[in-house]
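Lecture 7 notes: from sequence to structure.
We start with the chain below.
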Amino acid sequence: AITPHRPNFVLPLSYSWHPNEGPNGTTSTELDHVEVKFQLSFKVAIWAGPFSLPLDLYAAYTNVSYWQAYNAEESSPFRETNHEPELFLRSHQGWNLGPFADVDAKLGVSHQSNGRALPDSRSWNRVFFGLFGRWDRVFAELTVWDRIPEDAKESADDPRGDDNPDIEHFLGSGQLDVAYVYGRKSLAATLRNNLRSGSENKGSVTLSFTYPLSSKLKGYVEFFSGYGESLIDYNQANDRIGLGIALTDWP
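Predicted structure tokens for the same chain:
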């Protein structure tokens, strides 16, 4: 069966305070502050209990798109789309860890890219490990990752090699997701940080709130502040707020 992986949502109204019109000084498009943001994310178990272990092997895919739908003067382009396929092992033991119950772990690899040509190409590969569990109405997931090294480019226009060698400086080496669920409403936060001091400290916070609209749909409000919301803008700070609907939630 195909099941949700990360939240699935559509934000028809998404306002950005600092749209990045020229990430490499080559983009002439005049961007609107308001655009459409949506995320589609699903997973499927492709091997249950490999070698009789209490694990399942999953394949997952997440798509995040930023669409200048109201920018008719520029022919309403898709400003950025990020693709992230994953392959991971997930336990289903349901351990107890301190106050947390139903604790399980995952270990996998991830590739994330925006599928664009130079000079706007962005991509990186990671090995990640995560723990997730429940404490009454609180759901939490801590994920840490290590980037798989790439060779340096011989020149800026070399299609081979690392497109973004400093991406870990802005996106860090892990993130914490926490959600509080009450009834059919939820309040969630995602935190990332590179754990450096002073002016070298970079990170981001995403806050979201869902509330019921019908038996199947939820209203969705999302606020983002910091670095790395999308790959094309990974090294530019931005603030964004969006309003729309959620088809699936974290828990």
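Points to note: The chain is about 0% helix and 55% strand. The mean pLDDT is 91.
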